[in-house]
């Protein structure tokens, strides 16, 4: 569910969430800033998801503490892990950066680690894996090398 109304933030807190995802492409900068502030006032962390430099500017205006760079193009669903590599340099080092989508093997993790990424979000890579435990071990070990 995309967060588009403040009620959803209160509902997320009530349901036990510790963090919510705010998508910069669907919220104007004032709403994004308000939602981010509201979430933090309720004790929730936020990940503000971005796809380009303009959305990074919106996230910074919203006082993001965590920015997620989505490698999936939401218009055609194509994946490009280079999006993280291209956009990371525009995010200050005091903000945590998460690379989202398209991470499926140890090579992807090693490339991202060299770009100073703080975390990865893996979904489809686990869903396609024949053994999720082995896939998780592979990705964790790749981050340590």
Automatic annotation (TrEMBL):
N-terminal signal peptide: none
Q: Which key words are in the record?
A: Amino-acid biosynthesis, Aromatic amino acid biosynthesis, Decarboxylase, Lyase, Tryptophan biosynthesis
| Recorded catalytic activity of this chain's protein | 1-(2-carboxyphenylamino)-1-deoxy-D-ribulose 5-phosphate + H(+) = (1S,2R)-1-C-(indol-3-yl)glycerol 3-phosphate + CO2 + H2O
Q: Which positions fall inside the Indole-3-glycerol phosphate synthase domain?
A: 2-139
Q: Which enzyme type, at the first EC level? A: lyase
Q: Does the keyword Lipid metabolism apply?
A: no
InterPro entries, sorted: Aldolase_TIM, Indole-3-glycerol_P_synth, Indole-3-glycerol_P_synth_dom, RibuloseP-bd_barrel
This enzyme's EC code(s): 4.1.1.48
Pathway membership: Amino-acid biosynthesis; L-tryptophan biosynthesis; L-tryptophan from chorismate: step 4/5
Note the Pfam families from the entry.
IGPS (PF00218)
Could you cite one Gene Ontology molecular function of this protein? indole-3-glycerol-phosphate synthase activity
Q: An example of a Gene Ontology BP annotation on this entry?
A: L-tryptophan biosynthetic process
Q: What is this protein called?
A: indole-3-glycerol-phosphate synthase
Q: What is the lineage of its organism?
A: Bacteria, Bacillati, Bacillota, Clostridia, Peptostreptococcales
């Amino acid at each position: 569910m995309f967060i588009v109304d403040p009620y959803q933030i209160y509902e997320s807190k009530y349901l036990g969430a510790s963090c919510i995802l705010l998508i910069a492409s669907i919220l104007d900068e004032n709403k994004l800033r308000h939602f981010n502030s509201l979430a933090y006032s309720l004790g929730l962390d936020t990940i503000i998801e971005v796809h380009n430099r303009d959305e990074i500017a919106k996230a910074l205006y919203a006082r993001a503490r965590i920015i997620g760079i989505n490698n999936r193009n939401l218009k055609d669903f194509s994946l490009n892990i280079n999006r993280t590599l291209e956009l990371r340099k525009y995010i200050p080092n005091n903000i945590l950066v998460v690379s989202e989508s398209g991470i499926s093997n140890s090579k992807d993790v090693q490339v991202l680690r060299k770009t100073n990424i703080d975390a990865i979000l893996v979904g489809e890579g686990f869903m396609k894996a024949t053994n999720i435990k082995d896939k998780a071990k592979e990705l964790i070990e790749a981050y340590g090398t």
